[in-house]
Design a protein that fits this description.
This protein has eight helices and 18 strands. By secondary structure, it is of the alpha/beta class. The protein folds into three domains: about 5-40, no CATH class; about 50-125, Golgi alpha-mannosidase II (Immunoglobulin-like, Sandwich); about 150-345, 3-Layer(aba) Sandwich (Rossmann fold). A nine-stranded mixed sheet has the order 1-2-17-18-16-13-10-11-12, sandwiched between helices. A five-stranded mixed sheet has the order 3-4-5-6-7, with no helix packed on it. Strand 10, helix 4 (about 190-195) and strand 11 form a beta-alpha-beta unit. Helix 3 packs parallel to helix 4 (about 190-195) and helix 7 packs across helix 8.
Length: about 350
């Protein structure tokens, strides 16, 4: 039996109030015209500085600005559409994983093999079709295969901007302070920039000093300012904010499978996520607020994400919408590469 999926290029994404479990139940009860069973979102074609060219044989071939690179991708289990010669001819660099890379959900160091001349660091722009949503990101080659941005997250940037902008306009109309948005596990800060561009009071938290510095540079390159920077363990911060009775109108979480706080605090997604969400539920405003939860763990599904958010945030408080789905990249040949699951709550 095939379950249909709705592929939504951003700008045309539908939002559903019905839970994924209800959709599946109705499907099995005979309502086979439900093409909105699982929402799949990909970056809009308007983003000229990024492209997934090809994927397959556990790699992906991408273009970031003027540079093309090949990186490991365990979810690309199909064959490449282009030949190896095509890949070699196009790429500027390829990441070669070290021993143990990707085992048990962890990432060991690897090396970049340069094929063509390229800069150590370079910039790309995100210019949305949504007025006001644009920013600049510095990229660079890291020893963990990352370059400083996760392109599939662009649909989350769009959602964050829209939700935040609506809250800002409502606050201005009612003479209230700017809405506060908290970005946990915030990495190099694209989501923080989206919220700041919308006019929010933004707090950006990460446990790695280098990426906080990287994020600050992205803010400055984007012509933005006054983001609050915090170098701390995310769970420890959320617990303290809950004790203090602080609240936020928007909270964004993109937790890793494994990690460490600046003082050696251990983070393991399976063991810590439930407690983290309980703390976050205590600091998310009960009305006129939103939550974005993004999960990259291979063992997690959209149903799991929706269930834990519903259990933690929706038992005793009314909400406007609870949507879940997958974030994917579509290559030139129409192959959809799923990379993470996302759950979005609107109150």
């Amino acid at each position: 039996m095939l379950i249909s999926a709705n592929l939504a290029i951003f700008g045309e994404i539908q939002e559903f109030n019905i839970s994924l479990q209800d959709k599946i139940l109705r499907f099995y009860q005979g309502e086979k015209n439900l093409t909105d069973m699982i929402t799949i979102e990909s970056p809009g074609k308007f983003w000229q500085d990024y492209e997934l060219i090809d994927s397959g044989n556990f790699e992906k071939l991408e273009r970031f600005g003027n540079y093309i690179m090949a990186r490991p991708e365990p979810k690309a289990i199909w064959d490449k559409s282009l030949t190896d010669n095509d890949w070699n001819r196009m790429m500027h660099t390829r990441f070669r994983a070290g021993a143990g890379f990707g085992k048990s959900g962890k990432e060991d160091c690897g090396t970049w093999e340069r094929r063509k001349k390229m800069d150590e660091q370079w910039y790309i722009k995100y210019n949305s079709t949504t007025p006001g949503l644009n920013f600049t990101l510095r990229l660079g080659l890291t020893s963990f295969k990352h370059v400083g941005v996760f392109p599939e997250q662009s649909s989350n940037w769009e959602f964050i901007y829209r939700q935040t902008r609506a809250l800002v306009e409502k606050a201005e109309k009612e003479g209230l302070p700017k809405p506060k948005v908290l970005n946990l596990f915030a990495y190099t800060g694209a989501a923080s920039l989206a919220a700041k561009a919308a006019g929010a009071d933004v707090t950006h938290l990460d446990s790695v000093r280098q990426v906080v510095t990287w994020a600050r540079g992205n803010m400055e390159a984007s012509g933005l300012d006054n983001i609050r920077w915090i170098l701390e363990d995310a769970l420890k911060f959320a617990r303290r904010e809950a004790k203090r009775g602080n609240s936020y109108q928007g909270i964004i979480l993109d937790p890793p499978a494994y990690g460490h706080g600046p003082d050696g605090e251990k983070w393991k997604l399976d063991e810590c996520l439930n407690e983290m969400l309980k703390c976050v539920s205590a600091i998310l405003a009960p009305k006129d607020s939103f939550l974005v939860l993004n999960l990259y763990s291979n063992g997690y599904s959209a149903v799991l994400g929706e269930t834990i958010v519903k259990q933690t945030f929706c038992k005793d408080i009314e909400y406007k919408a609870l949507d879940c789905g997958e974030l994917a990249l579509e290559d030139r040949f129409g192959k959809n590469l799923p990379l993470s699951i996302v759950v979005r709550l609107q109150r």
